[in-house]
Amino acid sequence: MSTVTCQISVSLDGFAAGPNQSLDNPLGEGGERLHEWALATESWRAEHGKEGGERGVDSEVLDEVTQGIGAHIMGRRMFGGGDGPWDESWTGWWGENPPYHTPVFVLTHHAREPLTMKGGTTFHFVTDGIEAALQQARAAAADQDILVAGGASAVNQYLAAGLLDELHLHIAPVILGAGERLLTDVGQPTLEQLEVRSSPVVTHVKYRVAR
Amino acid sequence: MSTVTCQISVSLDGFAAGPNQSLDNPLGEGGERLHEWALATESWRAEHGKEGGERGVDSEVLDEVTQGIGAHIMGRRMFGGGDGPWDESWTGWWGENPPYHTPVFVLTHHAREPLTMKGGTTFHFVTDGIEAALQQARAAAADQDILVAGGASAVNQYLAAGLLDELHLHIAPVILGAGERLLTDVGQPTLEQLEVRSSPVVTHVKYRVAR
Predict the structure, then answer these.
(1) A202 and chain B in contact, CB less than 8 A
(2) Residues of A in contact with B191 (CB under 8 A)
(3) Cα–Cα distance measured from residue B127 to residue A13, given in angstroms and rounded to the nearest whole number
(4) Pair type for strands B69-75 and B166-172
(5) Residue of A57, A175, A201 for testing the chain B interface, max B β-carbons within 10 Å
(6) ipTM of the complex
(7) Where do the H-state alpha helices sit in B55-121?
(8) d(Cα A140, Cα A122) in Å, to the nearest integer?
(9) What are the residues whose beta carbons fall under 8 Å from the beta carbon of B105, sequence distance 6 or more?
(10) Per-residue model confidence as pLDDT tens digits over B71-84
């Protein structure tokens, strides 16, 4: 069966985004600092159609976590477009060719027809909860893995429900002080540390979640 | 000048002790799980007068962080004995030969005469704040380093005041869900990741705090 994984950047004080998220500032104040390690890599740049970037541990980690993924799941806020019923002109933050290249199941309270983008990404809007979204993602992924892409609330919900197999954190040397807290209200899952890697700017730690 | 360091074990969700700390359960519910990595080492056992234990990365880290320390600082709750005026029969959690072997400056609101233990540990009770305690620790440490031993509140206060030079976290693969939160209300200090080491049961990350 597919492994359900999560990879997410987090501040040392446990936030996956800064405070005061908005359409102009989707990662919240200071939130972009959590992703600096990734943006510097060749892997991220190639995934976003750019040349150049660094090869190294961070690039390798990014390659690995995005490999073999057959479907993504994300929260409504990560997809963006504001709260409430959809403004159908909103097609995500990523332009016409989003960096997912698989079906993406967006958790929402508001129905919407699937949205097919370039490069193999189709956004499906799931209104009947995280288990239904996972079921659809499993069907779409076949024998590939499923990545819960974020944000913090979606990850916390899957972890709390015992539906996550692996948690891959990229711990940035950043203290945000406020924002979207990861690993809160998740009960007390048992974790096993599988792997630790680091570059000078980030610590990558991979955990298995015991069922 | 002496380096002011901190080394502390923390859960993956950011707690340095579990909820409901008490005299019977000084680390709070589940808090002992943060220290399992240390208790297994030869270093910890030798420091506490016990034989045996494991040699390896965790043991090396523990040796290094306790080396060259000329004075310790700790919060009142870490020294223990309950809140309010002192019960002078309370001489700490550690028996007659505490594992500090230096002067230890205890932050408290209640005056008390210094308490000399075996093995070179003398507890000094400082009632005029964290800066005064640091000044006394600097005088006592001479050219050796000063270790802020905990708990979370003492570490947070020194970090918030810009008085900490280095922060050495031992991140345990444990989610406590509640307790004494580290790295909260500390402002937004700038951190530089200096070193990452790991064993199968814990991730050690050392940061420099920019002044």
Answers:
(1) yes
(2) 12, 173-175
(3) 29
(4) unpaired
(5) A175
(6) 0.94
(7) 57-66, 76-79
(8) 11
(9) B71, B72, B73, B74, B124, B126, B133, B136, B137, B140
(10) 999 999 999 998 89
